[in-house]
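Just wondering, does anyone understand what follows?

——
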Amino acid sequence: MVESKPHRHALADNAARQLANTTKTAPQMATITPRWLVRFLPWVAVESGTYRINRFKESSPMDVACGRSDESDLPETFVDYQETPRERTLSMVSTVLDVHTRVSDLFSRPHDQIREQLRLTIENVKERQESELINNADYGLLNNVAPAMRIKPRKGPPTPDDLDELISIVWKEPAFFLAHPRAIAAFGRECTRRGVPPATVSIFGAQFLTWRGLPLVPCDKLRVDAESKSRAGSGKSSILLLRTGADKQGVTGLFQPNLPGEQTPGLSVRFMGINRKAIASYLVTLYCSAAVHTDDALGALEDVEVGHYHDYA
């Protein structure tokens, strides 16, 4: 027996939709982050592509006189420099974006295909830039913490006492902590347990937890190493504390200015041409590095447990 269709008195939704315009968003990408480290760091233009960090020889004594009232000879001294100073050569993060001309010609309304492809490619390059600033084997922050500036937590999770200890070794005008969001959450739990909830501060229009007036800046590029596969949420990470700025002998980012096709400082997009398959290619390049001017500008609280929770009565 054939079922009869219900009698309609007006145009159905599915048929009406054929004449309606669909409102479409630009492509979304969940891996895009605020990249707070890039925003918080001061940046220095390196026109030659190489940045030399000249330092005073710490083993060289400097003699000065104080409070003398006689006519004895004053001490003689001089400032000696390191003969082989550390240099940072800018590193390149790059890729080639390919877009078929047929796609860009026919399907660029309401969103321009080339613009959106470039936008997401640039976002990906900038995400890699922040990761390299932290993890690069040469200039990454984690690999440039001096041995004397590395400490461990007292019990496992990051406590107020541990962050105070970190402040005590990076005490000359520290600027901010840098930690994985889970490490910040773990610190927040320890503060709650002790009845000292961290204050918040608004920076760049966003809210940050603080400790002793220093913001705890979240960054997912500070990795959490798995501690136990059998326990969900477990793992260890590091919390960094930075003093920033070349004028304060701190940490700075380095970039190459005035690049051909420059889009943002240190990043350029250049058209490479169209091949015989009608594919247009665009070179996306970013030059960057980081410099730690003195050892005491960067400290690390290592091996903090991020999966510790408390039971409250």
About this structure: Helices lie at 13-16, 36-40, 101-106, 113-135, 160-169, 181-194. The chain has a mean pLDDT of 93. The CA atoms of residues 152 and 302 lie 5 Å apart. The first strand starts at residue 43 and ends at 45.
